Protein backbone atom coordinates (compact mmCIF):
# COMPACT_ATOMS: atom_id res chain seq x y z
CA UNK A 1 0.00 0.00 0.00
CA UNK A 2 2.82 2.38 0.93
CA UNK A 3 4.60 1.53 -2.32
CA UNK A 4 1.44 2.26 -4.33
CA UNK A 5 1.05 5.59 -2.54
CA UNK A 6 4.64 6.58 -3.35
CA UNK A 7 4.12 5.66 -6.99
CA UNK A 8 0.91 7.69 -7.15
CA UNK A 9 2.60 10.77 -5.62
CA UNK A 10 5.44 10.45 -8.15
CA UNK A 11 2.97 10.33 -11.02
CA UNK A 12 1.14 13.40 -9.71
CA UNK A 13 4.40 15.35 -9.49
CA UNK A 14 5.39 14.28 -13.01
CA UNK A 15 1.97 15.28 -14.36
CA UNK A 16 2.26 18.71 -12.75
CA UNK A 17 5.73 19.20 -14.21
CA UNK A 18 4.48 18.34 -17.68
CA UNK A 19 1.52 20.68 -17.29
CA UNK A 20 3.56 23.72 -16.21
CA UNK A 21 6.37 23.15 -18.68
CA UNK A 22 4.20 23.67 -21.72
CA UNK A 23 4.90 22.24 -25.16
CA UNK A 24 6.93 25.13 -26.54
CA UNK A 25 10.33 24.06 -27.75
CA UNK A 26 13.45 26.13 -27.32
CA UNK A 27 15.09 27.24 -30.55
CA UNK A 28 18.78 27.38 -31.23
CA UNK A 29 19.68 31.02 -31.55
CA UNK A 30 22.65 31.52 -33.80
CA UNK A 31 24.00 34.54 -35.62
CA UNK A 32 25.35 32.57 -38.55
CA UNK A 33 24.73 29.29 -40.35
CA UNK A 34 27.50 28.74 -42.88
CA UNK A 35 27.33 24.99 -43.27
CA UNK A 36 26.44 23.88 -46.79
CA UNK A 37 26.08 20.17 -47.40
CA UNK A 38 28.54 18.67 -49.86
CA UNK A 39 27.83 15.05 -50.83
CA UNK A 40 31.33 14.44 -52.15
CA UNK A 41 32.98 15.68 -48.96
CA UNK A 42 30.65 13.53 -46.84
CA UNK A 43 31.47 10.38 -48.82
CA UNK A 44 35.20 11.09 -48.40
CA UNK A 45 35.01 11.75 -44.67
CA UNK A 46 32.93 8.66 -43.96
CA UNK A 47 35.91 6.62 -45.18
CA UNK A 48 38.18 8.43 -42.71
CA UNK A 49 35.63 7.73 -39.96
CA UNK A 50 35.63 4.07 -40.98
CA UNK A 51 39.42 3.70 -41.11
CA UNK A 52 39.87 4.81 -37.50
CA UNK A 53 38.17 1.57 -36.42
CA UNK A 54 41.13 -0.44 -37.74
CA UNK A 55 43.02 -2.26 -34.99
CA UNK A 56 46.36 -2.80 -36.78
CA UNK A 57 48.26 0.29 -35.68
CA UNK A 58 51.17 -0.21 -38.06
CA UNK A 59 48.89 -0.45 -41.10
CA UNK A 60 46.79 2.48 -39.94
CA UNK A 61 49.77 4.71 -39.18
CA UNK A 62 51.39 3.92 -42.53
CA UNK A 63 47.98 4.22 -44.25
CA UNK A 64 48.23 0.77 -45.82
CA UNK A 65 45.21 -0.80 -44.11
CA UNK A 66 42.39 -2.33 -46.23
CA UNK A 67 40.22 0.73 -45.57
CA UNK A 68 43.06 3.19 -46.25
CA UNK A 69 42.42 3.50 -49.98
CA UNK A 70 39.75 4.67 -52.37
CA UNK A 71 38.77 8.27 -51.73
CA UNK A 72 41.36 8.62 -48.96
CA UNK A 73 44.33 7.37 -50.98
CA UNK A 74 47.50 9.36 -50.33
CA UNK A 75 46.50 10.50 -46.85
CA UNK A 76 49.42 10.95 -44.45
CA UNK A 77 48.89 10.18 -40.75
CA UNK A 78 51.01 12.41 -38.51
CA UNK A 79 49.58 11.38 -35.12
CA UNK A 80 47.84 8.22 -33.90
CA UNK A 81 46.59 8.09 -30.31
CA UNK A 82 45.18 5.03 -28.55
CA UNK A 83 43.74 5.33 -25.04
CA UNK A 84 43.78 1.70 -23.92
CA UNK A 85 41.97 2.27 -20.62
CA UNK A 86 38.91 3.88 -22.24
CA UNK A 87 39.06 2.04 -25.59
CA UNK A 88 39.40 5.31 -27.50
CA UNK A 89 41.32 5.92 -30.69
CA UNK A 90 41.93 8.92 -32.95
CA UNK A 91 44.32 10.06 -35.63
CA UNK A 92 45.41 13.33 -37.24
CA UNK A 93 46.73 13.55 -40.76
CA UNK A 94 47.22 15.58 -43.90
CA UNK A 95 44.78 15.23 -46.81
CA UNK A 96 46.29 16.88 -49.87
CA UNK A 97 43.15 16.59 -52.00
CA UNK A 98 41.10 18.38 -49.32
CA UNK A 99 43.97 20.77 -48.55
CA UNK A 100 43.23 20.18 -44.88
CA UNK A 101 44.31 18.49 -41.72
CA UNK A 102 41.78 15.75 -40.91
CA UNK A 103 41.07 14.56 -37.36
CA UNK A 104 39.11 11.30 -37.02
CA UNK A 105 37.72 9.82 -33.80
CA UNK A 106 36.72 6.20 -33.25
CA UNK A 107 33.17 5.53 -32.09
CA UNK A 108 31.58 3.12 -29.65
CA UNK A 109 32.45 -0.55 -29.93
CA UNK A 110 29.51 -2.38 -31.48
CA UNK A 111 29.47 -5.11 -28.82
CA UNK A 112 28.65 -2.44 -26.23
CA UNK A 113 26.15 -0.42 -28.26
CA UNK A 114 23.12 -2.14 -26.69
CA UNK A 115 24.28 -1.39 -23.14
CA UNK A 116 25.42 2.07 -24.19
CA UNK A 117 22.02 2.85 -25.70
CA UNK A 118 20.20 1.67 -22.58
CA UNK A 119 22.51 3.79 -20.42
CA UNK A 120 21.95 6.92 -22.55
CA UNK A 121 18.20 6.78 -21.97
CA UNK A 122 18.85 7.82 -18.37
CA UNK A 123 21.80 10.17 -18.77
CA UNK A 124 21.23 13.69 -17.50
CA UNK A 125 22.91 16.96 -18.35
CA UNK A 126 25.48 16.96 -15.60
CA UNK A 127 28.30 19.44 -16.29
CA UNK A 128 28.57 23.12 -17.23
CA UNK A 129 30.66 23.92 -20.27
CA UNK A 130 33.40 26.41 -19.22
CA UNK A 131 32.81 30.02 -20.22
CA UNK A 132 29.28 29.45 -21.53
CA UNK A 133 26.64 30.44 -18.93
CA UNK A 134 23.68 28.08 -18.90
CA UNK A 135 25.31 25.63 -21.32
CA UNK A 136 25.20 22.08 -20.00
CA UNK A 137 26.68 18.99 -21.61
CA UNK A 138 26.96 15.24 -21.19
CA UNK A 139 29.78 14.48 -18.76
CA UNK A 140 30.77 11.19 -20.41
CA UNK A 141 31.23 12.64 -23.90
CA UNK A 142 32.95 15.74 -22.54
CA UNK A 143 35.29 13.58 -20.45
CA UNK A 144 36.13 11.28 -23.37
CA UNK A 145 37.65 14.19 -25.26
CA UNK A 146 38.91 16.52 -22.51
CA UNK A 147 40.18 14.14 -19.84
CA UNK A 148 41.91 11.29 -21.66
CA UNK A 149 45.15 10.99 -23.61
CA UNK A 150 43.27 11.84 -26.82
CA UNK A 151 43.13 15.64 -26.49
CA UNK A 152 46.87 16.33 -25.84
CA UNK A 153 47.87 14.19 -28.81
CA UNK A 154 45.34 15.86 -31.10
CA UNK A 155 46.37 19.38 -30.09
CA UNK A 156 50.07 18.59 -30.44
CA UNK A 157 49.57 17.36 -34.01
CA UNK A 158 47.39 20.32 -35.01
CA UNK A 159 49.89 22.79 -33.55
CA UNK A 160 52.74 21.13 -35.46
CA UNK A 161 50.72 21.35 -38.66
CA UNK A 162 49.97 25.03 -37.99
CA UNK A 163 53.67 25.71 -37.41
CA UNK A 164 54.38 24.30 -40.86
CA UNK A 165 51.38 25.52 -42.86
CA UNK A 166 50.09 28.52 -40.93
CA UNK A 167 46.37 28.69 -40.14
CA UNK A 168 45.63 25.47 -41.99
CA UNK A 169 42.10 24.23 -42.67
CA UNK A 170 41.03 21.62 -40.09
CA UNK A 171 38.23 19.07 -40.49
CA UNK A 172 37.11 16.95 -37.53
CA UNK A 173 35.02 13.85 -38.13
CA UNK A 174 33.82 10.76 -36.32
CA UNK A 175 31.00 8.27 -35.96
CA UNK A 176 28.74 7.67 -32.95
CA UNK A 177 30.60 8.71 -29.79
CA UNK A 178 33.46 9.62 -32.12
CA UNK A 179 31.14 12.26 -33.57
CA UNK A 180 30.54 13.67 -30.11
CA UNK A 181 34.31 13.85 -29.54
CA UNK A 182 34.84 15.48 -32.95
CA UNK A 183 32.31 18.17 -32.01
CA UNK A 184 34.01 18.92 -28.69
CA UNK A 185 37.34 18.98 -30.53
CA UNK A 186 36.10 21.51 -33.09
CA UNK A 187 34.76 23.73 -30.34
CA UNK A 188 37.96 23.37 -28.33
CA UNK A 189 40.12 24.40 -31.30
CA UNK A 190 38.02 27.51 -31.93
CA UNK A 191 37.38 28.66 -28.35
CA UNK A 192 40.59 27.70 -26.58
CA UNK A 193 43.13 27.79 -29.39
CA UNK A 194 41.72 30.49 -31.68
CA UNK A 195 41.84 28.23 -34.72
CA UNK A 196 40.25 29.47 -37.93
CA UNK A 197 38.73 27.48 -40.81
CA UNK A 198 37.51 24.67 -38.53
CA UNK A 199 34.90 22.32 -40.00
CA UNK A 200 33.06 19.44 -38.33
CA UNK A 201 31.19 16.65 -40.10
CA UNK A 202 29.92 13.67 -38.10
CA UNK A 203 27.92 10.48 -38.65
CA UNK A 204 25.27 9.06 -36.31
CA UNK A 205 26.18 11.44 -33.51
CA UNK A 206 24.23 11.50 -30.21
CA UNK A 207 23.05 14.69 -28.55
CA UNK A 208 25.74 16.17 -26.32
CA UNK A 209 24.25 19.28 -24.68
CA UNK A 210 21.21 21.45 -24.06
CA UNK A 211 19.70 24.17 -26.27
CA UNK A 212 21.90 26.87 -24.72
CA UNK A 213 24.99 24.84 -25.53
CA UNK A 214 23.69 24.19 -29.06
CA UNK A 215 23.34 27.96 -29.60
CA UNK A 216 26.86 28.67 -28.35
CA UNK A 217 28.23 25.84 -30.44
CA UNK A 218 26.44 26.94 -33.61
CA UNK A 219 27.82 30.48 -33.27
CA UNK A 220 31.38 29.33 -32.73
CA UNK A 221 31.56 26.37 -35.12
CA UNK A 222 29.02 27.26 -37.81
CA UNK A 223 30.63 24.99 -40.42
CA UNK A 224 29.16 21.85 -38.86
CA UNK A 225 27.15 19.08 -40.51
CA UNK A 226 25.61 16.11 -38.67
CA UNK A 227 24.70 13.23 -40.98
CA UNK A 228 21.93 10.95 -39.70
CA UNK A 229 20.75 7.76 -41.37
CA UNK A 230 17.24 6.35 -41.56
CA UNK A 231 16.10 5.00 -38.20
CA UNK A 232 19.57 5.14 -36.61
CA UNK A 233 18.93 4.94 -32.88
CA UNK A 234 21.91 6.94 -31.65
CA UNK A 235 20.95 10.45 -32.94
CA UNK A 236 17.77 10.05 -30.85
CA UNK A 237 19.85 9.76 -27.68
CA UNK A 238 19.93 10.99 -25.01
CA UNK A 239 16.19 11.57 -25.43
CA UNK A 240 14.73 14.93 -26.44
CA UNK A 241 11.70 16.02 -24.37
CA UNK A 242 9.93 18.99 -25.93
CA UNK A 243 7.89 19.51 -22.75
CA UNK A 244 11.04 20.10 -20.70
CA UNK A 245 12.85 22.60 -22.95
CA UNK A 246 15.21 23.94 -20.30
CA UNK A 247 16.39 20.52 -19.14
CA UNK A 248 16.41 18.37 -22.24
CA UNK A 249 19.24 17.57 -24.63
CA UNK A 250 19.16 19.42 -27.94
CA UNK A 251 21.05 18.80 -31.19
CA UNK A 252 22.93 21.67 -32.80
CA UNK A 253 22.51 22.34 -36.54
CA UNK A 254 22.89 21.44 -39.30
CA UNK A 255 21.47 17.95 -39.81
CA UNK A 256 21.40 16.12 -43.13
CA UNK A 257 19.06 13.13 -42.96
CA UNK A 258 19.58 10.14 -45.25
CA UNK A 259 16.52 7.97 -45.88
CA UNK A 260 15.25 5.57 -48.52
CA UNK A 261 12.13 5.90 -50.63
CA UNK A 262 10.56 3.52 -53.12
CA UNK A 263 10.24 -0.23 -52.93
CA UNK A 264 11.77 -3.38 -54.36
CA UNK A 265 14.53 -2.63 -56.86
CA UNK A 266 13.43 1.01 -57.16
CA UNK A 267 14.68 2.11 -53.74
CA UNK A 268 16.99 5.11 -53.71
CA UNK A 269 18.43 7.33 -51.02
CA UNK A 270 17.29 10.87 -50.33
CA UNK A 271 19.66 13.37 -48.72
CA UNK A 272 17.52 15.95 -46.96
CA UNK A 273 19.15 19.14 -45.69
CA UNK A 274 17.28 20.06 -42.51
CA UNK A 275 16.47 23.44 -40.99
CA UNK A 276 18.70 25.49 -38.69
CA UNK A 277 16.94 24.49 -35.45
CA UNK A 278 19.00 21.36 -34.85
CA UNK A 279 15.76 19.50 -34.09
CA UNK A 280 13.89 19.65 -37.39
CA UNK A 281 10.70 17.60 -36.82
CA UNK A 282 10.61 16.64 -40.51
CA UNK A 283 14.04 14.98 -40.43
CA UNK A 284 15.26 12.09 -38.26
CA UNK A 285 12.88 13.16 -35.49
CA UNK A 286 10.00 12.27 -37.80
CA UNK A 287 10.75 8.55 -37.42
CA UNK A 288 11.37 6.17 -34.57
CA UNK A 289 15.01 5.67 -33.72
CA UNK A 290 15.06 1.90 -33.37
CA UNK A 291 17.79 0.63 -35.67
CA UNK A 292 21.35 -0.34 -34.79
CA UNK A 293 21.84 -1.59 -38.38
CA UNK A 294 21.24 1.95 -39.69
CA UNK A 295 23.82 3.15 -37.19
CA UNK A 296 26.59 0.91 -38.47
CA UNK A 297 26.49 1.75 -42.20
CA UNK A 298 26.55 5.22 -43.79
CA UNK A 299 26.77 5.77 -47.57
CA UNK A 300 27.38 2.04 -47.88
CA UNK A 301 30.51 2.23 -45.70
CA UNK A 302 30.76 0.06 -42.57
CA UNK A 303 31.51 1.94 -39.36
CA UNK A 304 32.66 -0.76 -36.97
CA UNK A 305 35.71 -2.81 -36.03
CA UNK A 306 36.93 -5.66 -38.24
CA UNK A 307 35.83 -8.25 -35.67
CA UNK A 308 32.66 -8.00 -33.60
CA UNK A 309 33.24 -6.47 -30.20
CA UNK A 310 36.94 -5.95 -30.78
CA UNK A 311 38.69 -3.40 -28.62
CA UNK A 312 42.09 -4.95 -29.16
CA UNK A 313 44.98 -3.44 -31.06
CA UNK A 314 47.61 -5.11 -33.22
CA UNK A 315 51.14 -3.79 -33.49
CA UNK A 316 54.59 -4.94 -34.52
CA UNK A 317 58.10 -3.78 -33.68
CA UNK A 318 58.00 -0.94 -36.22
CA UNK A 319 55.63 1.17 -34.13
CA UNK A 320 58.46 1.91 -31.66
CA UNK A 321 60.19 3.98 -34.35
CA UNK A 322 57.43 6.57 -34.10
CA UNK A 323 56.04 6.45 -30.60
CA UNK A 324 55.97 5.45 -27.01
CA UNK A 325 53.82 3.93 -24.33
CA UNK A 326 52.90 5.56 -21.04
CA UNK A 327 52.54 3.87 -17.64
CA UNK A 328 48.90 2.98 -18.39
CA UNK A 329 49.71 1.38 -21.72
CA UNK A 330 48.33 4.25 -23.84
CA UNK A 331 50.09 4.73 -27.17
CA UNK A 332 51.02 7.75 -29.27
CA UNK A 333 52.66 7.38 -32.68
CA UNK A 334 53.93 10.63 -34.13
CA UNK A 335 55.83 12.11 -37.05
CA UNK A 336 56.15 15.50 -38.71
CA UNK A 337 53.98 16.22 -41.76
CA UNK A 338 55.51 16.61 -45.19
CA UNK A 339 56.32 20.25 -45.93
CA UNK A 340 54.95 20.01 -49.47
CA UNK A 341 51.69 18.24 -48.68
CA UNK A 342 49.44 21.29 -48.27
CA UNK A 343 49.35 24.81 -49.58
CA UNK A 344 48.76 27.74 -47.28
CA UNK A 345 45.04 28.59 -46.93
CA UNK A 346 43.79 31.61 -48.82
CA UNK A 347 40.75 33.84 -48.41
CA UNK A 348 38.94 31.78 -51.04
CA UNK A 349 39.54 28.62 -48.98
CA UNK A 350 37.90 30.21 -45.96
CA UNK A 351 34.85 31.08 -48.07
CA UNK A 352 34.52 27.65 -49.67
CA UNK A 353 33.93 25.47 -46.63
CA UNK A 354 31.38 22.75 -47.44
CA UNK A 355 30.63 24.31 -50.80
Written account of the structure:
By secondary structure, the protein is α/β, with parallel strands linked by helices. It has one domain (22-351): Alpha/Beta hydrolase fold, catalytic domain (Rossmann fold, 3-Layer(aba) Sandwich). Helix content is 30%, strand content 19%. The chain is built from ten helices and 14 strands. It has helices at residues 2-21, 39-51, 57-61, 113-120, 139-146, 150-165, 177-193, 211-220, 293-296, 347-351; strands at residues 76-83, 88-95, 100-105, 127-128, 136-137, 170-175, 198-203, 224-229, 255-261, 268-273, 297-298, 301-302, 323-325, 331-334. The strands form three sheets. It has a ten-stranded mixed sheet with strand order 10-9-8-7-6-3-2-1-14-13, sandwiched between helices. Strands 4-5 form a two-stranded antiparallel ribbon. A hairpin with a 6-residue loop joins strand 9 (255-261) and strand 10. Helix 5 crosses helix 7 (177-193). It is globular, with a radius of gyration of 21 Å.
